[in-house]
Write a structure and sequence with these properties.
Blueprint lengths: L7 E13 L5 E13 L3 E4 L6 H9 L6 E6 L19 H11 L4 H12 L14 H14 L4 E5 L7 H14 L4 E5 L3 H7 L2 E6 L2 E5 L2 H9 L3
Parallel strand pairs: 3-6, 3-7, 5-6
Antiparallel strand pairs: 1-2, 1-4, 7-8
Length: 224
Amino acid sequence: MRDTNLRSGVELRDVSKSYKLKTGEVKPIINGLTTTVPWKNIGLVGRNGAGKSTFLRLLAGIIQPDEGEIRRNASISFPLGFRGSFHRDLSGIENVRFVSRIYGQNTEYIVDYVREFSELGGFLNEPYKTYSSGMGARLAFGLSLAMDFDIYLIDEIMSVGDKNFQEKSSAAFHERMKTACLYMVSHSMEVLEEYCEAGIMLENGVLTYFDDVSDAVAAYNDLF
């Protein structure tokens, strides 16, 4: 069983990240943040545009902070739901093999798992650029779950697919949560409270941690 006292998840030291908007205005995502994100199931809440997805990409190492250092004390998945994880011109299977090699995985095992889990059939041989967002999410779900990560990053895709696929995905994640944890972004407060123990709210470049996800949800609701 997972023991949340065994390790920290990710350490951020004086981390800042901002984006320059088309208007020329600089929008801060995180300002000089020093904190430890614990090894727990954490729901991330915030307004649209607050930078929740950007925060997940920072944790995954897909983008780098403007300043500061991020230390990862656990293996972290790519963000499920982030379409930039795959090359547009490669087929689904080619993407699976490519990512598997990057992570040093048994490629054929991963391919077989994704083929069964994703239920994409012949579309796995088609270029990724032809995939719908739902098909891309199925591919990402299967690929991520085929690998043993300590932390899974989830970005707004727990409701992809039909009811049967949703139930299969939910069961798979509950099984993974016995030994791993989730950092999850969702606009569904019900989903966050189902899967998560703790919460983080991102607002105006400030990250606030809550030991109870219900307190994070309440703080988010108070914004409106």
